Amino acid sequence: MFDLGSSFVASVARDPDALALVDGELRLTYRQWYGRISALVASFDRIGLKAGNHVVTLLQNRWEAATLHWACQFAGLIITPINWRAKADELDFCIDNAEARAVFYHDISADAVKNSARADGLKRIAVGMNADRDLAFADMAKGSAPDAQPRVGADAWSIMLYTSGTTSRPKGVPRRHRAERAAAIAHVAQNLYGRSERTLGVMPLYHTMGVRSLLAMSLIGGTFICLPRYDSRQALALIERERISNLYLVPTLYHDLVNHEALPSTDISSVRKLGFAGASMTDGLLRKLAEVFKPDLFVNHYGSSEIYTFTIDQNAPAKPGSAGKAGINQHVKVARINARSADELAAPGEEGEIIASLAGDEAFEGYWRRPEADAKTLREGWYFTGDSGFMDTDGDLFVTGRVDDMIITGGENVSPVEIESCLSLHPAVSEVAVVGLADEKWGKIVAAFVKRSRPVSEAELEKFCRTSGLANFKRPRRYVFVDAIPKSPVGKLLRRLLVAGEYEAERLPPPDAA
């Protein structure tokens, strides 16, 4: 299989004059972009970076970040992107853990680098800004250089992503060139991308969704249109101006997009393919997106940083909640909760833990220097995801949440996702998150945290759940109206913050009682 550098060279030969990268007024063809990438690789040599070195980045989705990603693939550097919002101590951990040799940052992450105890010992490269004693990315990427040639093969490490680390230190997920390219090819196939697709490059390049969009576009002569930080008005403007043909976002960003005041006056007709991942999408949002975009394809992609694709459903609105069947490079099963072996399988309709084969082309091989994490999640050739779900009688997978998020109330297992999907269909519910709160009698009670789009009472919501057919033991026993649902930087619900009481109660006056 090609390494990623060889893959890009082939793309340049195939589509030299195709538009590859857009960032504001900057527009680069594949041939022009290759020139910038080559100049950067030559600069790596001048500052002493060598194949196998880790370089940490704290960058938004700018042209420099996309160019750096590709230059690392040619040079054999292991790009190690972290959230540009990271604090100094988080940066220090990643620098130590990866034994990084360089750090790339820009103004929004400059304070973290300045206050970092470990960054001083590294090559520090400032992107899009002046920094007195640090190297300037602009100088490294300008001028001419011989065309860069790939220096590593398909078995070399390409990237190391870090998991979110909600309960412990983040875990490094190293991935090889061949796994990254296999995932990109599968992404093209499973989303039915054609030549010259144009995608909105807003999912961050420290997240597997952003990386997949970047690599997939290169395979088809497509265009990666940078949006450094998500803003619905800017996203809509780019869709109209650049005639974007596909979107690949987390549900939270779709929610903000279709509820923005600028939507009715924006021409979104160029968007024919929708894809989402990163979290389940409620029935209400699925319905609204289908109505607004009327897409030719609407893909629910379920996966992770460790194994990019678990399952794919290419017609998400037809079977709300379904994550579909295994992707073309994968095999998935549902094991019983707390199973000791991958052979202890749940019956159809029985909730269990989702597991995925490590033999797939997209799979990682284990966490970076975390043998205890490997021992917990990698067993008998299977990756135990920690996600809960079940297979229906058609063989379609339904993801119900995290095993740790399961609410056990009065001895019954309750999935938060099912209740969230039910409540999302009420016209007054803008967003909803469901958690279990400690209760002396029931162990835990089901609590729904609701962001309202208009006045609605608890009694109305209770009636709605009852008439929807939601089982009595699943219906929320408590409603909390909030101004915002806490989420991670990539839009995942942070249920633990709701359980801990870390949320903003609604400041609006209470609605009239039903």
TrEMBL record:
UniProt-listed Pfam families = AMP-binding, AMP-binding_C
| Residue ranges occupied by any AMP-binding enzyme C-terminal domain in the UniProt entry | 418-492
Q: Which GO terms describe its molecular function?
A: medium-chain fatty acid-CoA ligase activity
Q: Which UniProt keywords apply?
A: Ligase
Q: Which InterPro entries match?
A: AMP-bd_C, AMP-bd_C_sf, AMP-binding_CS, AMP-dep_synth/lig_dom, ANL_N_sf
Superkingdom: Bacteria
Question: Where's the AMP-dependent synthetase/ligase domain?
Answer: 10-368
PROSITE patterns cross-referenced by the UniProt entry: AMP_BINDING
User: What GO biological process terms does the UniProt entry carry, in alphabetical order?
Assistant: fatty acid metabolic process
Which family does the record assign? Belongs to the ATP-dependent AMP-binding enzyme family.
Write the protein's name: 4-chlorobenzoate--CoA ligase
In its UniProt entry, the species of origin is given as: Bradyrhizobium valentinum
